[in-house]
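Design request, tokens follow.
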């Protein structure tokens, strides 16, 4: 199973909140209150995202954090890479140094095909896509008539 860390999940929640009001700067405290994520975690994630050039920070009384670019220009792949490192399903996709089987492996090159497909899919989804409302079809449910009919 492919799974991202909680920190990466928190980063997408934080960035989605900031992207919804991308014309404003946001304090760490305000983001923590709005998202329900603990302030130390929010501060840690914000610092990582500033270092990755996803966010910019401004000091001072009217300072805070803002997106470095419009939400349409920030991909989910960029966010994941900022928190997780290079996107790769296997260690050999990044480097053969950590793999004991590298010399006799006949499929290591094929993992790059899978990694590229995943990278392309994640690059195709932007922060702007993440904040769009999801239009789910209305859920239908059935209530058995016998459960609502009670003879007098």
């Amino acid at each position: 199973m492919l799974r991202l860390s909680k920190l990466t999940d928190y980063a997408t929640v934080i960035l989605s909140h900031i992207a919804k009001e991308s014309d404003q700067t946001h304090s760490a405290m305000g983001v923590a209150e709005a998202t329900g994520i603990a302030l130390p975690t929010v501060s840690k994630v914000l610092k990582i995202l500033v270092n990755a050039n996803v966010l910019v920070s401004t000091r001072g009384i009217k300072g805070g954090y803002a997106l470095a670019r419009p939400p349409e220009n920030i991909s989910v792949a960029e966010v994941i890479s900022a928190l997780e490192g290079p996107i790769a399903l296997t260690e050999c996709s990044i480097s053969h140094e950590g793999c004991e089987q590298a010399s006799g492996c006949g499929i290591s090159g094929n993992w790059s095909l899978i990694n590229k497909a995943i990278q392309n899919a994640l690059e195709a989804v932007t922060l702007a896509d993440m904040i769009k409302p999801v239009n789910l079809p209305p859920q239908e449910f059935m209530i058995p008539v016998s459960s609502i009919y009670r003879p007098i």
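Comment from the thread starter after seeing the answer: thanks! The first helix runs from residue 6 to 20.
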